Automatic annotation (TrEMBL):
Recorded catalytic activity of this chain's protein: uridine + phosphate = alpha-D-ribose 1-phosphate + uracil
Sequence ranges assigned to domain Nucleoside phosphorylase in this UniProt record: 16-217
Domain of life from the UniProt record: Bacteria
GO biological process, one term: purine nucleoside catabolic process
GO cellular component labels: cytosol
Pfam family membership, one: PNP_UDP_1
GO molecular function: purine-nucleoside phosphorylase activity; uridine phosphorylase activity
Protein's recorded name: Uridine phosphorylase
Enzyme superclass (EC): transferase
Gene3D superfamilies associated with the record: Nucleoside phosphorylase domain
Species this chain originates from: Humibacter ginsenosidimutans
SUPFAM superfamilies: Purine and uridine phosphorylases
Entry-linked InterPro entries: Nucleoside_phosphorylase_d, Nucleoside_phosphorylase_sf
Length: 235
């Protein structure tokens, strides 16, 4: 049955879900990559679509921006709609030296400054990590396609403005590849629900060089990310 934020019925969503942040990107992914895409949910302008890719059922739904918003959709999908795997496909601000715009970041962990993934044990800080099987499948696909990519940790931040350059330099110094706003909570929820998740990101700007993709490039340059995301879902 429908939930407060998803108007679908059981069976409307496939067990495998792509999750961009932007609702418009979700619609374009369905229209460009799915066979027979059909709308299964539309609440608060967040559309959910289901179709097939190479004969396998797949869905896409946006998370909105930030970890609190993502937590709503990921939790409802895992608990109420039989979803087993979610891949976040979105953008990241690059932190690594020599990173190029359009390069992929495949996250093998997610630091966070947020309280959202607060699945903690007394005295223990839990790691926020993706499914190893999905991670391996994503890396293999990127390598096989010859796509520029890096594998490493990212930081999921609650702030878009206001973070200091000193903070970013310190994160870069310990190997952090990029900053975004959702993945750590996705990994935490998947772990709590006994499900699987991954994050495949495209470098849209670089924190230290001020390079950034144009709006047009952001809108159109996501094909490689989606293909690697699908490989992670199918892996």
């Amino acid at each position: 049955m429908a939930t407060p934020h998803i108007s679908a019925e059981p069976g409307d969503f496939a067990p495998l879900v792509l999750m961009p942040g932007d609702p418009r990107r979700g619609r374009r992914i369905a229209q460009e990559f799915f066979d027979d895409p059909h709308l299964v949910s539309e609440v608060r302008s967040i559309e959910g679509w289901t179709g097939t890719v190479d004969g396998r059922p797949v869905s896409v739904i946006a998370s909105g921006m930030g970890q609190p918003s993502l937590s709503i959709y990921a939790t409802e999908l895992f608990r109420e709609f039989g979803v087993e795997r979610i891949v976040r496909v979105g953008t990241t601000g690059g932190l690594a030296e020599g990173q190029q715009l359009g390069e992929l970041v495949i996250a093998n962990a997610a630091h966070t400054d947020s309280a959202m993934p607060g699945l903690t044990l007394p005295g223990v800080t839990l790691s926020r990590v993706p499914s190893h099987r999905m991670l391996e499948a994503a890396v293999r696909e990127a390598r096989d396609r010859g796509l520029p990519h890096r594998v490493g940790p990212i930081i999921s931040s609650d702030t878009f403005y206001g973070s200091s350059m000193e903070k970013y330099r310190a994160l870069a110094a310990i190997g952090t590849l990029g900053v975004e706003m959702e993945a750590a909570t996705l990994f935490a929820i998947a772990a709590a629900e006994g499900k699987e998740a991954a994050a495949i990101l495209t470098v849209s700007d670089h924190i230290f060089t001020d390079e950034q993709q144009s709006s047009e490039d952001r809108e159109t340059g996501y094909g490689a990310m989606v293909r690697v995301g699908l490989a992670a879902l199918f892996g």
